[in-house]
Amino acid sequence: MPESAVEAVFREERGLLLAALVRRFGDLDLAEEVTSEAIEAALVHWPVDGVPPKPGAWLMTTARRKAVDRLRRDQAYAARLAVLQVEADRAAPAPSPDGELPDERLQLFFTCAHPALPAEDRTALTLRCLAGLTTPEVARAFLVPSATMGKRIVRAKNRIRTARIPFRVPDADELPGRLPGVLQVVYSIFTEGYAASSGPDLQRLDLAEEAIRLARILRRLLPAEREVAGLLALMLLVHARHDARTGRDGDLVLLDDQDRTRWDRAMISEGAALVLVALTGGPPGLYGVQAAIAALHDEAPDVAGTDWPQIVGLYDVLRVLAPSPVVELNRAVAVAMRDGPAAGLALLDTLADDPRLQSYAPFPAARGELLSRLGRLPEAAAAYRDALALAGTEPERAHLRRRLTECTSP
């Protein structure tokens, strides 16, 4: 099996393996350590013996043996070993309404959404440990430096240990209270799949599709929760464009230039139907409003025919529901499409001092685009240089280099 395929197996199996081990042994640090050791063992044995028919089962068996060996050697854990199976049985998940057991990773997402942990800490911990994102990828989701995020994850793990927070699936009446944190985790996984933080590829389709799969399970388990419908709608409507977001050579293709015949119309129809569910029966929610914006993009014949006034209005709602610099950035771009680049640039300039945007590549990239449209090419070039220094993936950098060349060539 090629090295890239082996890496794909590890990426796919790691989350499942870690979730199962946490539920089995009730110790996140132990589960992380033996998961890493099992993968290291696979890197030694698989090139010689070949990849086993069921690589996930091989990794699980290896990790469990290493965990048991470690517990037996460690006297501090010796007394716990005898009762672990009893605790695991007690923490076993209840069947879903349709009789299917929920996904183990999803169980652990709800477990880590414990109210004793600060909201940002528990989301960061879940993304890093259970969703398998790297610390820089999690940091990008929160617009903070990697070092800050690393400290936050360590703090959350220490809090779980010192407060003796149990790793158990919450009761049914606890699920709604923990749902917002779980939705944020699933959406952050999707975001990393839709726009990767780093690497040779613009998208990580495996992550995007995994997030959609988890959202479908949530929708099945909690059909009355409108924000679950909103999140699933949002991801479907955005993911429907994935095939058109890159060219044959993997280069970035902006929304203005995408071939809309390559958009997945069945996915768009499903997402649009879910938008109606998300926006009916009560005040609009965060994901429902974002899904409505995505639906307007997907339903438009082209960029010029997009209902930009309505999109700006929806961003006005969103900035009240969930104020953030990214919302303000996206709203400014929509205003530029409605009222012209000067109006959008004026709004972007009011955000220039926000420290959360100073390491966020889309911000200087958006400024560069609007400055270019206004004919202010030296300023546009400077903005594109700033964006180029921050861009994480090669397709983004290639696009920004082209835009920079266009601004500096005679």
UniProtKB/TrEMBL annotation:
Keywords annotated in UniProt: Sigma factor, Transcription, Transcription regulation
**Domain RNA polymerase sigma-70 region: from-to ranges:** 10-75
Q: Which Gene3D superfamilies match?
A: 1.10.1740.10, Winged helix-like DNA-binding domain superfamily/Winged helix DNA-binding domain (1.10.10.10)
Highest taxon in the source lineage: Bacteria
Under SUPFAM superfamilies, the record lists:
Sigma2 domain of RNA polymerase sigma factors, Sigma3 and sigma4 domains of RNA polymerase sigma factors
Q: Which InterPro entries match?
A: DUF6596 (IPR046531), RNA_pol_sigma70_r2 (IPR007627), RNA_pol_sigma70_r4_t2 (IPR013249), RNA_pol_sigma_r2 (IPR013325), RNA_pol_sigma_r3/r4-like (IPR013324), WH-like_DNA-bd_sf (IPR036388)
Q: Which Pfam family is an annotated match for this chain, by its short name?
A: Sigma70_r2
Q: Which residues form the DUF6596 domain?
A: 178-275
Per the database record, which ranges form the RNA polymerase sigma factor 70 region 4 type domain?
A: 112-159
Give the record's family classification: Belongs to the sigma-70 factor family. ECF subfamily.
Supply the PANTHER family for this chain: BLL6612 PROTEIN (PTHR47756:SF2), BLL6612 PROTEIN-RELATED (PTHR47756)
- Name the UniProt record assigns to this protein: RNA polymerase sigma factor
Q: Which organism is it from?
A: Amycolatopsis heterodermiae
The record lists the lineage as: Bacteria, Bacillati, Actinomycetota, Actinomycetes, Pseudonocardiales
